[in-house]
Design a protein that fits this description.
CATH architecture of the largest domain in chain B: 3-Layer(aba) Sandwich
Distance between the termini of chain A: 64 Å
Number of helices of chain A: 13
Largest sheet of chain A: 2 strands, antiparallel
CATH class of the largest domain in chain B: Alpha Beta
Radius of gyration of chain A: 19 Å
Number of helices of chain B: 10
Radius of gyration of chain B: 23 Å
CATH architecture of chain A: Orthogonal Bundle
Helix content of chain B: 40-55%
Number of domains of chain A: 1
Helix content of chain A: over 70%
Structural class of chain B: alpha/beta
Distance between the termini of chain B: 70 Å
Order of helices and strands of chain A: HHHHHEHEHHHHHHH
Oligomer: heterodimer
CATH topology of the largest domain in chain B: Rossmann fold
Number of strands of chain B: 12
Structural class of chain A: mainly alpha
Chain lengths: 309, 323
């Protein structure tokens, strides 16, 4: 038992938790933008996968991983645009569209992998974004072993949470975003362009999810492999709900999921099955939705297409 | 009149098709596992065996890559209806469907890689993965400087347990003081988890990590490169994925099994039953150490060879959790 407690406060576990949480954080922030504007984004998984592939592909050809990051955000944004066109312009069922995008991305990435590299499973290894040491954090004892040396994208994820929080709660644009998701008719009446807001939000959502995928393929690992997101888009969606559609709440949820995963990896020896940890995010999401830990209520207009007039 | 004419043409064509002389060539159909071609693992190995048979034995081959487990049965039935001389299916994922299909087509010959279907028209092609894993275990046990090595499995299924048990016994045989850390990722397609598991084992002292985890394993190799420890690959020769970091790979010659079974079919000697490929016939074993010759001392290579001979002679018996 002492081992377990020692492991729970082990800095290596915290550092691993942060690495595991990073792709989730980006995707969850993306999910928040989309859902806050009133568009359900179940397509996060597909957007991440597209981002992961594009990041690898662009980096392979340019040798510059940061260009790969840009490419992945563009590709994720493009998938977001497709989602938005179907959901906003054509008022398609958002869950069906999202599911279609997930299946589409799964097939497309494998097709492209085979087309360009003649292999279906795993891409060649590419240049990665190297870890960096932060000057101030790396001089504080204990903290340095968690935050002192990490990938730039890990820090970027944490910064992004703060930025998204400010954008959503402290800017006029964020107020309009929330209004569009809660009561689009009222927002429209006071002159907010509901369609434009939703288009922009879903594209941002895709770009952020793509960034999450980037972390997997060219920061955490050095190659793309088929289906490598392995359900992280859905876990991110669970984190959005568990975090009650707020950036800070989602950050907490992602860190918790990442921590539980990192801890479990080290505690397999004492007999907590892997499958239990794989269930955890979804069980907690259901608990949150059932209202056991305060009410988890999403934006009111989420999932409903807006019809002007 | 025109209608009657075209009907006649169609009928003539149909009869022509049915009466087309059946070619004397042996016709082989192969159905891959999920993942399909390009997995740098056993699907690719099966393909090499198929192509070798096509060139050297002059057989006629067709193949298909199913997307998921739900498609397996349909592909098996479709191929069975084609009247092929042998249908080879790759992977335990085909097992339950093939049990049914092979019973429905008693006159068609089937072969399955990595699992057993107990019907007289099925040849089951198995590998002694536990013996091959023993050999890489000997290597890891002798090469470790921390007396700690790791094993990362994909899913915790009996087949993967076979790799684990053989590895553990090999490590202990070569180095009784060494301990083996064991983790399962719960997936064959999550390299992110593979990487984190390998890192966690490295942090707990492991300086060599062996994976039997399919696509998840590429994360293990990535972790070995970035955190500076050794990895051991599996199934195909993965040494090239990180030259110098991947000490060796536990190579499983699916190509050999596929080639041999096609050869038997072409010669008309295929009788079904279980075929086992082990160390002696080269069905499993280490890679050629192409990039690690200078890292691994001759003494270690000699001990691996000694273990190999002792397994063949029966002096060492590696436990097989499937029996």
């Amino acid at each position: 038992m002492g081992d377990v407690i020692a492991m729970m406060f082990n800095t290596a576990v915290f550092a691993a938790a942060l690495r595991m949480a990073t792709p989730l954080i980006f995707a969850a922030l993306g999910g928040i933008f989309s859902e806050r504007s009133g568009v359900v984004n179940i397509a996060l998984e597909g957007m991440m996968l597209t981002g992961a592939f594009t990041a690898m592909f662009v980096t392979y050809h340019t040798g510059m991983p940061w260009v790969g990051v840009l490419g992945a955000m563009l590709a994720g944004g493009l998938i977001g645009l497709i989602h938005a066109i179907f959901c906003v312009r054509y008022r398609a069922n958002q869950v069906v569209t999202g599911t279609a995008i997930n299946i589409f991305a799964g097939g497309l990435t494998v097709f492209l992998l085979r087309f360009f590299f003649g292999t279906a499973g795993t891409s060649p290894s590419v240049t990665t974004i190297p870890d960096i040491t932060l000057p101030v954090l790396s001089s504080i004892p204990w903290i340095d072993r968690i935050l002192g040396r990490q990938n730039p994208l890990v820090y970027l994820a944490l910064v992004a949470v703060v930025v998204v929080h400010i954008v959503i709660y402290k800017t006029p644009w964020g107020l309009r975003l929330r209004a569009v998701g809660e009561h689009p008719r009222a927002a429209d009446t006071v002159g907010v362009n509901v369609f434009k807001m939703r288009y922009i939000s879903v594209v941002i959502s895709g770009a952020l999810a793509g960034l999450g995928g980037t972390y997997l393929s060219i920061a955490h690992l050095s190659r793309f492999s088929e289906g490598m997101t392995a359900g992280r888009g859905f876990i991110a969606l669970a984190a959005v709900i568990f975090g009650k559609w707020t950036p800070l709440g989602a950050l907490g949820a992602c860190l918790f999921f990442g921590y539980a995963d990192a801890l479990q990896m080290r505690l397999q020896d004492i007999g907590i099955p892997t499958q239990f940890m794989n269930m955890l995010p979804y069980v907690l999401t259901m608990v949150a939705l059932a209202g056991f830990i305060g009410r988890a209520v999403g934006p009111k207009a989420s999932g409903e297409p807006y019809i002007k007039g | 009149m025109r209608n009657k004419m075209s009907l006649l043409v169609v009928m003539v064509l149909l009869i022509g098709l049915m009466a087309a002389p059946v070619s004397a060539q042996t016709r082989i159909g192969l159905i891959f596992a999920e993942g399909g071609l390009g997995d740098q693992s056993f699907n690719d190995a099966a393909y090499r065996g198929l192509m070798q048979a096509k060139e050297e034995l002059g057989v006629d081959v067709i193949y298909v890559e199913p997307a998921d487990i739900a498609e397996m049965e349909e592909h098996q039935r479709a191929y069975a209806d084609l009247g092929l001389d042998l249908i080879i299916v790759i992977g335990f994922i085909h097992q339950s469907a093939l049990t049914e299909v092979s019973a429905d087509y008693p006159d068609v010959k089937f072969a399955i890689v990595d699992d057993v279907v107990d019907n007289p028209n099925v040849t089951s092609l198995l590998f002694e993965e536990h013996e091959g894993s023993f050999l890489v275990g000997v290597l890891a046990g002798m090469m470790t400087e921390t007396n700690t090595v790791g094993f990362v499995g994909g899913m915790e299924v009996p087949l993967i347990r076979k790799f684990q048990v053989g590895f553990e016994e090999g490590v202990k045989w070569a180095n009784p003081d060494a301990q083996v850390l064991v983790n399962y990722a719960g997936a064959f397609d999550d390299p992110g988890r593979g990487r984190e598991l390998a890192i966690s084992q490295n942090e707990r002292g492991a300086d060599i990590v062996y994976h039997a985890a399919g696509g998840t394993g590429s994360g293990v190799i990535d972790a070995a490169v970035s955190n500076g420890f050794y990895a051991i690959g599996v199934d195909s020769d993965q040494d090239f994925m990180a030259p110098g970091t991947v000490l060796t790979s536990m190579v499983k010659r699916v190509d050999l099994a596929v080639y041999e079974v096609i050869k038997a079919a072409a010669e008309g000697t295929l009788e079904g039953g279980i075929w086992s490929f082990g160390i002696e016939d080269g069905g499993v074993g280490t890679s050629e150490f192409l990039y690690t010759k200078d890292i691994i001392p001759q003494e270690v290579l000699d001990t691996i060879e000694e273990a190999k001979q002792k397994i063949i002679s029966g002096e060492i018996v590696v436990s097989n959790p499937l029996q």
